[in-house]
Specification:
Mean pLDDT: 75
Radius of gyration: 26 Å
Shape: globular
Number of strands: 10
Order of helices and strands: EEHEHEEHEEEHEEHHHHHHHHHHH
Largest sheet: 3 strands, mixed
Low-confidence stretches: 203-210, 212-217, 270-311, 363-371
Strand content: 15-25%
Structural class: alpha+beta
Length: 371
């Protein structure tokens, strides 16, 4: 049995699988998988358009006896990404609670367009906690105790279980048959690799993709520079390039230098002052507080800040960013390395922050999401 299966995933990439490829590269846990288990895994991948090489789904089997069974689990990010692509998805929230008997549980709510009430799902600690054998001084005690992940991060784990349960009920067609690592309490999650699988046959293709990615990044940088030129004006744009010793943005080849130039440009606020075009950029960008933008130093503005400052007008996407609780917003922007004020964010950056904030909030009490 070595039937080859080919299908396309959500991003259009073609995935080629066979029982031989699965046995050689995609089985976790060291167990001997049966032909039936492999066919079930192949069917799941094809039906749900999952890419196991990118760790979107795992085939796991511990042990080699007759009682050992294989488990198929989905990667952590797949659930939320798929939900966010559904036009009916309107956000979610999770919270940790205790019932009248003092039992710990997590409740997730998923808001779906067209539904009068959110889809709710409760995950109780005692039903989901993963247990392992207890050892004292290297000797088994015969008792079961929570494993390391559930012992150290039980609220995080519970919240994730509740969220994927609610998402699965809300979007059955997109998530049918998919279960997360956190829900299956027989899996040692710490041993599951998140690194992409590189096979002998796809090494050349991987290199091709890497080369295409480099070219895409180059084009993307030049597009960003053009946007900044329009936003801050040619005078500021070319002044910053000259400060770095460049005449044109396509002369900047080093990735780190590209980031430095970009951050300098992003520091220029749009329409912050009626006299912004007259401002000596270099006098304030280094923190010398000569511009209205120097927070707390407005009195030092030599162009009469109070008389000329315009009211900040946020775009619709920027307003959505302001709805996100500050702790999640700051964390999301920090991880994305976005270091500018909200009023100068592009729509693309806003959407990146919203998506990252939702991901960060999977395991914590959160807000009703925005799209």
């Amino acid at each position: 049995m070595n039937e080859i299966i080919e299908y396309h995933v959500d991003n259009g990439e073609k995935v080629t699988l066979s029982p031989e490829i699965v046995r050689k590269y995609l089985v976790n846990g060291g167990g001997n998988v049966t032909d039936q288990e492999i066919m079930m895994f192949l069917s799941l991948c094809k039906y749900q358009k999952l890419n196991p090489f990118l760790r979107e789904v795992y085939l796991i089997k511990y042990g080699k006896g007759d009682k050992a069974t294989a488990t198929m689990v989905t990667g952590k990010e797949t659930f939320l990404k798929r939900a966010q692509k559904n036009p009916r998805y309107q956000g979610h929230e999770t919270e940790i609670k205790t019932d009248e008997e003092g039992k710990l549980y997590a409740r997730a709510k998923v808001y779906v367009k067209g539904y009068a009430v959110p889809i709710k799902y409760d995950a109780y600690y005692e039903e989901y906690v993963a247990l392992t054998d207890e050892y004292v001084q290297g000797k088994p005690t015969g008792r079961k105790v929570p494993n390391k992940m559930w012992k150290e991060k039980k609220r995080v784990m519970l919240a994730k279980c509740a969220l994927v349960g609610a998402l699965r009920e809300a979007f059955t067609a997109d998530l049918q048959g998919l279960y997360s690592q956190e829900e299956i309490n027989t899996i040692n999650m710490e041993k599951l690799s998140v690194e992409p699988v590189i096979t002998e046959n796809n090494t050349k293709e991987t290199k091709k993709i890497e080369n295409n990615t480099k070219e895409t990044k180059k084009i993307h940088f030049l597009q960003i520079m053009q946007e900044e030129k329009t936003r801050i004006g040619e005078k500021n744009y070319y002044k910053i390039l000259n400060d770095f010793g460049y005449k044109k943005s396509n002369e900047i080849k080093d990735r780190k230098k590209q980031e430095e130039v970009y951050l300098k440009m992003r520091a220029v606020k749009k329409d912050c002052c009626m006299n912004a075009e007259m401002c000596d950029y270099s006098s304030w960008v280094e923190g010398k507080a000569m511009c209205a933008n120097a927070e707390g130093e407005e009195e030092n503005c030599k162009y009469d800040y109070k008389a000329n400052l315009k009211d900040i007008k946020y775009t619709s996407k920027q307003k959505e960013i302001l709805k996100i609780p500050e702790n999640f917003r700051k964390k999301a922007m920090e991880e994305l390395e976005i270091k500018v004020d909200i009023d100068v964010l592009s729509d693309t950056e806003c959407m990146q922050i919203i998506e990252k904030a939702n991901i960060l909030a999977d395991a914590q009490p959160f807000y009703r999401g925005v799209k």
